Amino acid sequence: MVETVHSFSITDEKAIEKIIRNEHVNINHVVLRKAEALPIHKANSHAHLIVIRGCVDLALNDQKAHIYPAGSIVSVPYDTRMNVSNQRDEVLEFFIVKAPGPESFTK
Fold it and tell me: What pTM value is reported for the model?
């Protein structure tokens, strides 16, 4: 078998899954219900949020939150402060693709 298969949860409950982690790419899967959020943090790589269900409320650095619906891909530069949450009734589901993987960045 040449390919590697990775799985992620199919759920409406809160989930933060680290699916692929290496120096080339990190892929995380996130599910947030209303009023749930990720911890505020700085992007440790170039991050791409791929929204597949619901709407993500995303505040970067000191700007007000912008709302991105399903079907959006939002690119966030390295070292940007991120505040990611779901402020809506509908479940939010998205993938975070970090490329290159954070392991390739040096301080």
Answer: 0.92
